[in-house]
Specification:
globular; alpha/beta; 2 domains; Rna Polymerase Sigma Factor, Chain: A; Rossmann fold
């Protein structure tokens, strides 16, 4: 598999939905496979909250592959011997694209809270700049899960002639109170950590020492990515062999798991980026600018494929069914499919249970669905 990592830099302003302007800005992106002559084999992958452009393969010396490596690669469901795959790091994220800790050219200091609050539309608009710079104006598919699914829906609604297929997984048409509440726990935990320093921390200090507020918040958020059944199966009531049962802070295995994921996370993810991305997800609403969701979805010309997971507690299957039913109200009702995957894993099933939907995606791309 041919893997290339690049950075696109733009001096022209990005006009954000909030009325703010981002200028200049850059986006780090990664490509996999080879672009064919007529550029008809392009697939865009959009990432979730903590994801990045590194969606597949290994970097030199890296022990862990890209976040969707089971799904994308030579001979895999998204076969990079056939398709040219592009994944872009969202603006606002902390893996190289312009973010709150990037330098504001007006002050020569990090933006921090002067960074604009972004919408999903802003993120996709910035991605379109990258694609236009590559002379790519039509793609085979846009595929994403969770926040990536929000972006996929945005592509479908706001750029209706851009993609043949839109595959949105484990997502929603608008963020409900349940998901906003989980985000609130993380936001408050970050803001109330003294080491956050009201947003004026040094990045190197966080990377070196972590941030307890983000760690604790991430633990709460991580619960929403799993399900009770998956926790029962993975951990049961196993207790740490080295901890005494009657020690006050002795731990069950599930507690150790939460600690590991929580306290490692701040070493690789920026707190201000997390706050901004959580806000972006909270304000997402696919029907904004239209009277109803059905009217907004009526703009879609691509074939829209919705994939939900039965054990997803963050964006429940009925949220995706609502999109499906709204599409059925429109004249383009034959342009939508819906599949619910039987899964006890939880929200993260779209990342880890590829074997349950990989062949289905292949059938979509091969025009069998």
């Amino acid at each position: 598999m041919i893997v290339e990592t690049k950075t696109a830099v733009f001096d022209e302003p990005l006009y954000c939905e909030s009325g703010r302007i981002l200028q200049p800005f850059q986006i780090v992106y990664e490509t996999y496979g080879k672009l064919n002559k007529d550029k008809s084999n392009v697939i865009i992958i959009t990432h979730a909250l903590s994801g990045s452009h590194h969606v597949a393969g290994f970097y030199e010396g890296e022990r862990k592959a890209g976040w969707w490596d089971d799904f994308i690669g030579d001979g895999k469901s998204i076969d990079t011997t056939k398709y040219f795959v592009i994944c872009m790091n969202n603006i606002g994220s902390c893996f190289g694209s312009t973010s709150p800790m990037s330098i504001d050219p007006d002050t020569n200091k990090p933006y921090r809270f002067k960074f604009p609050v972004l919408t999903i539309s802003d993120i996709v608009k910035a991605q379109m700049r990258v694609l236009e710079s590559l002379d790519i104006y039509k793609v085979k598919a846009v595929i994403g899960g969770s926040m990536g699914g929000m972006q996929a829906l945005c592509y479908a609604i706001e750029y209706p002639d851009f993609s043949e297929h839109i595959i949105a997984m484990a997502t929603t048409a608008y963020t409900r109170p349940w998901a906003i509440a989980f985000n609130k726990v993380v936001i408050e935990a970050i803001r109330n950590d003294p080491d956050f320093k009201d947003g004026y921390y040094e990045s190197k200090d966080i990377k070196e020492n972590g941030l307890k507020g983000l760690a604790v918040g991430r633990m709460a958020g991580h619960i929403s990515y799993l399900s009770p059944n998956s926790m029962d199966e993975k951990f049961g009531r196993k207790y740490d062999d080295t901890d005494g049962l009657y020690d006050l802070f002795g731990r069950f295995e599930v507690e150790k798991y939460m600690e590991y994921n929580g306290y490692n996370f701040p070493h690789k993810f920026d707190p201000l980026s997390y706050l901004y991305i959580a806000k972006t997800m909270n304000i997402f609403n696919a029907s904004r600018g239209s009277d109803t969701l059905a009217q907004s979805l009526d703009k879609i010309k691509a074939k829209l494929h919705l994939i939900s997971f039965s054990g997803d507690l963050l964006f429940k299957p009925e949220e995706m069914e609502e999109i499906y039913n709204a599409m059925k109200e429109n004249d383009n009702k034959n342009n939508v499919t819906y599949k619910e995957i039987d899964s006890d894993y939880g929200h993260d099933a779209f990342l880890v249970e590829v074997e349950k939907f990989g062949d289905y995606v292949v059938d979509i791309l091969e025009e069998r669905i």
